[in-house]
């Protein structure tokens, strides 16, 4: 499949379209805050990892390029890794959706300096929210995640109340059973101790260096999570002071 990036010599952002990046370590709460921000910003939420999973399950929007879907399924079926260029193609397909007209929330992307280089060739960055959480608290929360094997709904059985951190558990009504669909809740491979440690190492090596670039742009908002979702009003005050919403 031809690289879609060669179609564009300049920015493909539409007039007035804004781009908010949620930045931070795996499990810090980017996805949770993204869902809350969607309601207030009316932006489209784009997680390239989630989009790849949707493609593999056949749950993409009708506007998605069918050739791109076939290409990604073929790569994954052969045990390959989706390239940075194809990830950018996924992003461009998401920008076609009407929900992206006002702006987008990028969740977990870009992940590497090369991805940021590709991104900056065609799109701007208006605000970067650097979501942080103390390392020991983060690891404890990651290990306590439970995910439905059927619908993907996430829960967290961790109950934290110490050192100024107050984070209540998000328990299912019935232990081990998803509230949304009745499916079985499991600990994903990504949430097992050895995998968490590897993901954190990769984040420190490949993703965290992006923060220096963003700081040089003057677009970073630092936001430390202390009370989980209850911190959202504070986050929203920071975001709306930087965006046209």
From TrEMBL:
Keyword Nucleotide-binding tagged: yes
Q: Does the keyword Nucleotide-binding apply?
A: yes
Please report a single Pfam family linked to this protein: ADK
**What superkingdom does the record give?**
Eukaryota
Tell me which CDD domains the record gives. Answer: ADK
Concerning InterPro entries, the annotation shows:
Adenyl_kin_sub, Adenylat/UMP-CMP_kin, Adenylat_kinase_CS, Adenylate_kinase_lid-dom
What is the organism field in this record?
Paramecium sonneborni
Name of this protein: Adenylate kinase active site lid domain-containing protein
